[in-house]
Fold these 3 entries.
Entry 1:
Amino acid sequence: MSPKMTAPKILARKGGSKIKMVTAYDFPTARIADRAGADIILVGDSVANVVLGYEDTLAVTVDVMVHHTAAVARAKPNAMVLGDMPWLSYHTSVEDTVRNAGRLVREGGAEAVKLEGGRKRLPMIRAVLGAEIPVMGHLGLTPQSVHAMGGYRVQGKRAAAAYELVSDAKALADTGVFGIVLEGVPDVLAEIVTREISVPTVGIGAGRHCDGQVLVLHDVLGLGGGEYLPKFVRQYGSIADDSVALLEQFFADVETGEFPGEAETYHMPAESEEILRDLNQMASEPTAAADDLLADEAMER
Ligand code: KIV
């Protein structure tokens, strides 16, 4: 069994072996991710799109994130459980931020939290770190800013914006985050950030130069509903198609009576079966006879 992954161990992986991160939102997907060797399981607010069918991530609340994080934590993975802070859980005040991060840890079993944004989040990040909760940053295409960005667009394509992002990354790293997710940015920008900061970068749509990579589990496995997939996703199979085929087999077996078979069936002792049949036949006869039969069965036991 590999030892438990922690924030300090992730930090120590800077420039070393690549960090493997994937999302999971419940007990079975957490078990799958952990068996496959994930370093970090992110209970992402992408649960909103991927599992709950919303258009964007803005719909999910701290309660929803606690619910899903707790299900993942119950799998007791060796991977670190990283809870995503949903929109508006760290935007209103430092106090709310610490309380909400604390709920993900205390009620959800998260071992660290992730939140989106650059320098304007520093007071919140400092406060959460002050409560002894490790924090991972998230820069670039930050889905919670979908309206402010005018859609899901690659960020930092022009030098000025890219330079702002480098400055954000440096500020977050200096403040003490143990890693930064870089999402939807040109590879050269991710390369520069990765070189310039002392904490690991984990890329998603950020090219190959990051210290690690993350994808949404349902995208990797082809477990979604066949909807649009971003360019940066590599789908390794189609669990959705496989599942449809397996269920079709089940339904066909139900139709033909092939299911359930002997191996899937319970039986009662032969003498009880006989009595049951007699009882059933005597349904219209005086109850004294039925009582005698039941007494006989009790004696035989
Ligand atoms: O919620 C999520 O899945 C994420 C990843 C895209 C990094 O934040």
Entry 2:
Amino acid sequence: MWNDNDWQALAQHAQRCGSRILLDIIDSEPGRAQDMSMKLGPLYFNYARQHYDAEAISDLLVRLENSGIQQQTRALFDGEKLNKSENRAVLHSALRSNLSDAPAAQEAHSHALEVLGRIEQVIERFRKAGVTDVISVGIGGSDLGPRLALNALADFSSDEFRVHFLSSADGFYLERYMAALDPSKTAVLLVSKSFNTQETLINGEALKAWLNDPSRVYAITANSAKAQAFDVLPDNVLSIWDWVGGRFSVWSAVALPTILGIGMANFREFLCGAADMDAHFLNTPVQDNIVAWQALTSIWNRNALGFANQAIIPYDERLEMLPDHLQQVLMESLGKSVRMDGSDCEHATSPVLMGASGNPSQHSFFQYLQQGIGIVPIDFIGVVKSSHCQAQNHHFILANLLAQAQSLANGQGSDDPQKRYPGNRPSTVILIDELTPYALGMLLAFYEHSVFVQSKIWGINAFDQWGVELGKQIATTLMPYVEKSRTDTESLDAVTQELLQRMLAG
Ligand code: F6P
């Protein structure tokens, strides 16, 4: 965790840099466009349009190193119980890389390999049973990562199985799937680490009855007993473990829907990309560590410049779901106001992460990004080589990415205040050579590790999520009122009583 000296230094750098226009800083540092960039495998990162000077970022990198981040990273990879409030190790890295000799990490890695083997058997069973469609039922981390990966890697999909995702407990998609699909050719995956998530269980109950064949109901869970109590056959349970957080589980059997689409060989490439980012993060000195740069840039924008929001804008429709996935990775991890030791955070933590695919967004919320009162730092993500043959379309997309990043930073004056572009708006550009499974794996692991580093700077636990529990509990107590099996509403608060009355009158 950073100490008072670190935070004071950050404030001093902020005072100096904040009093200067971003464009002036860039112009005064020749070579900055190259110096503040890094190429790592298929990924290229450019931080030159962040609103810090070289002195600030250099000092912050040293401070990060001195704060012991490398030892903390080692502890993460070794499987120390860093998730203190749940007394759990955090070993999603062991699902994709084998970079630690520690027994916990070794054991986790061998479990991961074993389950990959089992997944291949399950796919074979689907083939033999003539399965054409698979419904993956899960929510949060049991949905977003696999869904993102399948969308992003659609070009790698064999179309052998049609994969459908069911997340919300809203019955709309449930009913659509049941009407459109043939139960005799469909398999259902119940993806839930806890096997306690009501949305998944409600949808699961309905689909189990509709399918009427336990041989095609599968569970991917860390709670095998609960899955079996739900009538899932023991041989149809694929394990995940308590050391894999839901939002970090796309590297596990949770990604079975993705694997059904892209095949095991491509999934292994995805794991390899993440493994190489793991190795870079673990073994590279802080000054040259891309994860450290990313994390410090986020800290800078949040704590030095006070920006409350952050945007992820991919200029590629295949990455349309990236902001949704990263919203959970970032905000469920860093949306905390209490530190690991129970004391209150003294510095602002997670920004609100927003985002959507870039080109359509230009015609909706980019007005705000360009001229709104609040400044929103952006990660622009572009893919250099397109997967389609429409060269003009692709060139247009790339030109627009460049144009947005440039105009946000440089702005443009005008005699007419309405037509003035203030500029001074920071962004990072990440370019991907080509959107392959390997590159996607690297990119997702990069963001995951950046979240870890930020949490260490703030001294918070990135791996629990107690804030989601209260709403779930209250929903359980309110359910009987909505179902009208309970009518003693006097004990409810006045606003809930009124709203309930309105609902039940409808
Ligand atoms: O309610 C939040 C949460 O626990 C997330 O952290 C998790 O990804 C999601 O729900 C789904 O949980 P599970 O996989 O246990 O069903």
Entry 3:
Amino acid sequence: MPKPDLILLALEESSILYLMDRALRAVQYETAIARDVEALGKILKEATPSLLLIGEKFDGHEGLRIARELQGRFPTLPFLLYTEKLKPDLIRGLLQLGLSGYLAPPLKTDDIVEAVENCLRNAHRVGDWLRKEVKRTTASLQKRAQISEAERSRLETVFNNIHDSVMILNQDNVILLVNPAMCRAFGLNAQTVVGKPVLEIVTHPDVIALLTRTDTNDPFQYHEVSFPDGRVGNAQFTDIQGVGHALTMQDITYLKEVDRIRSEFVHTVSHDLRSPLTSVIGYSELVERVGPLNETQREFIGRIQDSIQHITSLINDLLDLGSIEAGRDTHREFVQVEGILRYTINMLDGQIKSKQLKVQTEIAPGLPALRANPIRLRQVFDNVVGNAIKYSPLDSEIQISIHAEENQVIFQVTDHGPGIPASDQPRIFDKFYRAANISSEVEGSGLGLAIVKNIVENHQGRIWVESTVGKGSSFFIVLPVNAEPAKTMRRL
Ligand code: ADP
């Protein structure tokens, strides 16, 4: 048998209180009587009444005020208000509170029972609806929780099994997550490193160099990481909005190996080609000495010599590039850049004159001496000034300037040639790359700027271009005054 509903009566001592009590008990309700506010609070806390019937005045307080306060604490408890006299103000108060109903004299037993039953029926309906809603919401939350749990565990599996090393850091570079590949690469214990600053945990100098780089606003930075056992990683440090940063690293050992084999092959082939070419040139020069040549024969011999010269300079470029990339460019001495630049301009004077170019030079006085390899610096100036001449239209101007700023020397050469399309600009420093707007008739191998960039970076400097198609190009080279040879950092 279900437990009977408990009706809590909070009314002043009066005959009506007893009438209500009797009437309700007669129809099998349980009743509890609260004679003051304290008792009311106690019963509400200890028993679970199904309905509160409260007098308009109770224990010196407004019944409506008590009901308003209790509504906050017991939102599902239905209320009935008993009033001696129904006044408009009271009805407004009842409506504002959304109370379930009221009782007012003259009262008969049936009126009391009917009002209580109506009120309970409504409350049960609301209760059932609420229970159903709660069940529905709980089920949907459970489903969502299951989905997000499945999602989370799928992501965790991916994170733990990817071959690349991944570490997630917050804004202060404290480790939030680290995957097993990263732990293996640096010998870390995932359990103990989470929550610690990455710079305390990963002490590899290449990683420190990457994490502490301040010279770039590039949101995507990378650095090669060389391990003592010969492995090489390509590490990136990337901003992640709202989280912090990601440190990722791919194993590029096999790519480095392929690159080394390729370079060695190019080096060997170039080297082996040089000797036969020297003898071809030598014999082509001797031909004329052993007997007279007619005009056509002389022209053909001339063409052979031009072609051999072209191949020889290509081979020399390849051999140069190979030895700079292999880190063999370590010679350093104090060099006066001004002298080298003037030498380059003098050497190129023939080409300048033949294209009727005006070259304006602005060399700041008192330039500091650079610790550099003078032969390599000459190659840099020869290539960049040579390109400016080569790509300039006849009878145009070239500006060359060099000045010092805070322990570095800044060199700039500006021409008014065809310019370089924006999409080609990032690639012109790659080997064999020639921009799309240059006719194939213009001589060149696409190796010059690759050599220049390697030399500049080997001197711990930077090179970049600013260019507008149809207007011209400016190449900038910044070299530190006192730089040691850079660690080999071959770009793949
Ligand atoms: P190349 O032998 O083709 O001149 P470089 O490596 O010196 O090779 O230059 C690579 C490419 O960059 C060139 O083919 C050309 O497209 C572009 N370039 C270099 N310098 C200039 C310049 N001053 N004006 C326009 N384009 C240039």
